[in-house]
Amino acid sequence: VVLVVDFGAQYAQLIARRVREARVYSEIVPSTMPVAEMLAKNPRAIILSGGPSSVYAEGAPSLDRSLFEAGVPVFGMCYGFQLMATTLGGTVDDNGAREYGRTPLAVSKAGSTLFEGTPTEQSVWMSHGDACSAAPEGFTVTASTDVVPVAAFENDEKKLYGVQYHPEVMHSTYGQQVLEHFLYRGAGIEPTWTTTNVVEEQIALIREQVGDKRAICGLSGGVDSAVAAALVQKAIGSQLTCVYVDHGLMRKGETEQVEKDFVAATGAKLKVVDAEKRFLDALAGVSDPEQKRKIIGREFIRVFEQAQLEILQEDGPEVAFLVQGTLYPDVVESGGGTGTANIKSHHNVGGLPDDIEFQLVEPLRQLFKDEVRMVGQELGLPEEIVQRQPFPGPGLGIRIVGDVTKERLDLLREADAIAREELTAAGLDRDIWQCPVVLLADVRSVGVQGDGRTYGHPIVLRPVSSEDAMTADWSRLPYETLAKISTRITNEVADVNRVVLDVTSKPPGTIEWE
Ligand code: XMP
Questions:
Q1: Which of 326, 396, 511, 513 to mutate to test the pocket of ligand 1 (most atoms within 8 A of CB)?
Q2: pTM value?
Q3: Is CATH 3.40.50.880 what the domain over 2-186 is classified as, yes or no?
Q4: Is 168 a known active-site residue?
Q5: For atom 21 of ligand 1, which residue has the closest CA?
Q6: Per the CATH hierarchy, to which homologous superfamily does domain 195-328+358-386 belong?
Q7: Which of 26, 135, 155, 482 has a CA between 20 and 30 Å from the CA of residue 208?
Q8: pLDDT (tens digit, 9 = 90+) per residue, 14-56?
């Protein structure tokens, strides 16, 4: 394993992903972890991430010197670089040499371990206030910029390396190469980690964990639960039952896709619960977004638990496991570490016996989203499932501004299907993060169609680009595609006479309208 020490901000996850792209397994640890504990994990190398602080700021995270003396290769980036410099006796100061964004880097030692085979002039991504003016003793300076004399250094003998910039971001042109040089040349690691290994390893682990007991898994139609279920299915076959709750708020063809494509690809046992009426009854007359979300969440749990109860009553071994599609970012964000092994499943609702405890099976706990997609591919899941864009759990219920009714849902389903069809036809699926289609059910506007006046509802298109949904920008879709979507929706969907485009970034707007 390669450890990525997290000094805050969002850099550590990106670095860990880049290391895995280099086919080396990586894990993130907090900078507060004692060095002895880090070393106890027997890392083949350690990477120190960037961070928001100045090394001299009060309370700035630091590192025990012993980390650099353990014989483990270390690569410091940005904050990690400055920390390495100051800890080992170099000089870092605030000389006013701030650099933010794309910066030209002059490589002074082309044959160095990190920069071998890369040009002497290269563009890198900087983001720092303080700067290193003198490298620690025993280190060679390997690159500089116009304002920073020491922008990279290395001590090949001790296997210690550092760069002031962020090699993990794509704006650093040779960043991935420099990182790979550290891993392969500096630390001597072989690139052998692949998702194929992950699948094999997880299947063995799941078999061992579940034994001859049974497991259940909730399918949402999303990528994560589908891949987790497929993996567990491959490991334990008919000992797994998947439950899919059709709340009637799904998009067109979605339930059929789960029923047919998922089952065809995996052979999993699937229990589809048709709960449309129940959800629509519960949502009747409700237009407040938060209330809709609460109702949908509550009903979902009730229905799911009812299905659980039914499975529990079927003949067979004990149902002891619940499969979840938890991803690595969820694990890291909730404090990393070992996580919960046992949950008590909602004994207060739905009528489950008090004493039922499920153990969790979370086969995707070490993976990032793109890796989950690769695993899904490996397991033979169809593209439509594996490359699916995000879709909110409450479904179309939060894409109708106003009350949710069956008629409105049907109308929105049609409009959404047209938008999706045209975006796919234009080859734009991978360019956009997602494109909510929203019905403004409480708004009407005047239009003219044929010879007559219409008084219909507007449909909003909300195409966005994003990396993680935390921030987003509106997608600049080609006019022809927008025109086609607009024409088709107003022609084909009754009661819609206007299509509008949402051109708000996030912030200030959220991606969904509710
Ligand atoms: P917002 O609207 O907050 O959405 O910018 C960010 C991302 O999260 C999705 N989303 C949800 N996903 N359950 C989910 O599983 C939810 O309740 C939910 N609400 C929003 C949204 O589609 C976007 O990708």
A1: 511
A2: 0.81
A3: yes
A4: yes
A5: 392
A6: HUPs (3.40.50.620)
A7: 26
A8: 999 999 999 999 999 999 999 999 999 999 999 999 988 788 8
